[in-house]
Amino acid sequence: MRRTRVLPLAALLLCTPALSGTAAAGGAHGEGGTVRPLRILLTNDDGYDAPGIRMLFQRLTAAGHEVTVVAPLTDQSGAGTKLAGGSTVKVVHPEPRVWAVDGTPGDSVSFGLAAVFGDRAPDLVVSGTNFGPNVAALATHSGTVGGAIAALERGVPAIAVSTGELAVPVPEQILNAMRPTNDFTVKLIERLRARAGYGRLLPAGVGLNVNHPVVGADGRGTARGAAVTSQDPQPVLAATYTDAGDGTWKVAVDLAPAPSRRGGDAEAVTADKVSIAPISPDWNTGTVDAARITLLLGGLRP
């Protein structure tokens, strides 16, 4: 994460008028200063026909945007930033404005930008809505976030969107919570468009990892605000291995949440707030950590 950009981005997103209100669109202007619909590439890691991406497609379309789905043919959860890199790729075009790529979210975004959108890149890539959270270390391995990273690497603004909390998922709750998640996503995009004027929706090289909590017993509740956060370093999941005695090991993975870091994404979601974490396509540290490593390794020679 580019830490030096967090505060300016926080000001962009959260200063008045409140993000919880609908901002008047002021960016993505067409001829004569009129506001045109945003051209959005929509992807995910749950698969092109998953409920989350279908619901978000409908919501973004209802908001007036031109949305094209280019997403994995099958469930690619946990694929991270993986690219298949093969010499051929199977692509299905089952209906207008929907493309299904037999590969990872990164493969889908790469194909979408090169073959579907071609020389005219979309205004925005949105990856989601994911079934379950992508906070802390979950974000590091997330195919949802990986799809956004693939767009950022190619210079296209991107937002990853997820719904869930650090608990065993209850499907009905999460599906219900996707509706307020999608409403918030539309408001977020309108805020970015209103502040962009004739420029980019987001600063170059910066994307957003958005996590919406599950609020209320049925998941239909409204979040208690939004916060610009950092990625909590906790691993969230813990694996145990048991020797089966035949050369294989049985693997069990359990939730192992640790105390949340103050100002982190896990803390925000646990407090029923929407977490908005700035992300970048590279793994550079902040300037302070880079200076510490320089001092630590000063004078080292081969």
Give structural notes.
The chain is built from 8 helices and 11 strands. The chain has 302 residues and is α/β, with parallel strands linked by helices. It has one domain: Stationary-phase Survival Protein Sure Homolog, Chain: A (3-Layer(aba) Sandwich), CATH 3.40.1210. It has a 9-stranded mixed beta sheet with strand order 3-4-2-1-5-6-7-11-8, with helices on both faces. Strands 9-10 form a two-stranded antiparallel sheet. The N terminus is likely disordered.
Entry summary:
This protein has 302 residues and is α/β, with parallel strands linked by helices. The chain is built from 8 helices and 11 strands. The chain is globular and about 55 Å long.
Give the key terms:
302 residues; alpha/beta; Stationary-phase Survival Protein Sure Homolog, Chain: A; 9-stranded mixed β-sheet; two-stranded antiparallel sheet; globular
Layout: helices, strands, pairs:
Blueprint: H1 6-14, E1 39-43, H2 51-62, E2 66-72, E3 91-95, E4 98-101, H3 105-116, E5 124-131, H4 137-140, H5 143-153, E6 158-163, H6 171-196, E7 207-212, E8 226-228, E9 237-243, E10 249-255, H7 265-270, E11 274-279, H8 287-297
Helix pairs in contact: 2-6, 3-5
